[in-house]
Amino acid sequence: MPLDLEIKIKKTDKKSESPPLLFIHGAWHGAWCWENFLNYFPQKGFDCFAPSLCGHGKSGNDKSLKTTRLDDYVENIRSVVDSIFSEYGKKPVIVGHSMGGLVAQKYLETDHEIPKAFLLAPVPKHGAWQASLRMARRLPLQFALLNLTWSLWPLVGTKKRTQKAFFSENIPDNKLNKYFLLMQDETYLGFLDMLIFRLPSPKKVKTPVLVLGAENDRIFSVKEIKSTAKAYGTEAVIFDDMAHDMMLEENWKDVADYIIKSITLWV
Fold it and tell me: First vs last Cα of the chain: how many Å apart?
């Protein structure tokens, strides 16, 4: 595995014919956000890999996070996929969340051997500008500050802002405390990439893609999620009573079981 990346690895107790899974986290997060999935999927026969993208979690970075680009994250994923292929002789199914969904889409444009991909609440095909406008209306001072300081931290810099962005109102306070303390700043130039410079090109993707969204997502609307699914020639699956962080919500297992069922039917 790449030495400069933190990679959380959980494997099955016995040999399985199921494909390995590669989880890609979104903005402000790290590999830690997949804790539920990393504990659950191996019980169902899947070996799991969850890297922290460069500058996130315990991963190194050869440049400032402010100037890290989306392409840097794509190269992180390329190196992890290559390592998985070296070990298994096959490439993993990819599961990307939010910004990680965009990283997955950009990676899939150049690697046509990934067997299947799931995009959870992904950055839409038209980019994150609508989400940015919604944030600017909700947090005008913080949005102005992020453009002055090249720091996205002001948007999630309190427990209340973190909860509003990512979680349902009924999230237990102990969990919200835990997740908030793990949140971090995000790349400013990568933010610009998500707005305009590195938008997805679904026509270049040959991998079968399924798009999953959350009914109560405050970052990307159900309409945006459905539009992204349509671009990949499929229909979005929208989960009720769920906010943006689908893998950490109280009903996360519904999402996990759907992914497992989809892979099983596909195989």
Answer: 26
2 in any annotated domain: no
15-19, 117-121, 126-130, range with the lowest pLDDT: 15-19
Residue 107: count of CB within 10 angstroms of its CB: 24
129-138 vs 140-149: helix axis angle to the nearest 10? 120
What SS3 state is found at 13?
Answer: coil
Q: Give me the domain span that covers residue 261.
A: 7-266
| Helix/strand/coil percent split, the chain, to 5 | 45, 10, 40
Report yes or no on 59 lying in a domain: yes
C-alpha 163/C-alpha 140 separation (Å) is 18
How many domains are contained in the chain?
Answer: 1
Q: What pTM does this model have?
A: 0.96
**Where is average pLDDT lowest: 29-33, 117-121, 130-134, 229-233?**
130-134
Measured CA to CA, the distance from residue 82 to residue 44 in angstroms comes to 24
Q: Which residues of 7-39 are buried (b: 16+ CB within 10 A; e: fewer)?
A: bbebeeeeeeebbbbbbbbbbbbbbbbbbebbe
Which pair of structure tokens corresponds to residue 27?
Answer: 């903005």
pLDDT of residue 265: 85
Residue 227 forms part of a structural domain: yes
164 found inside a domain? yes
Strands (E), the chain: 7-10, 21-24, 48-51, 93-97, 117-120, 209-214, 237-239
| CATH code, domain with 148 | 3.40.50.1820
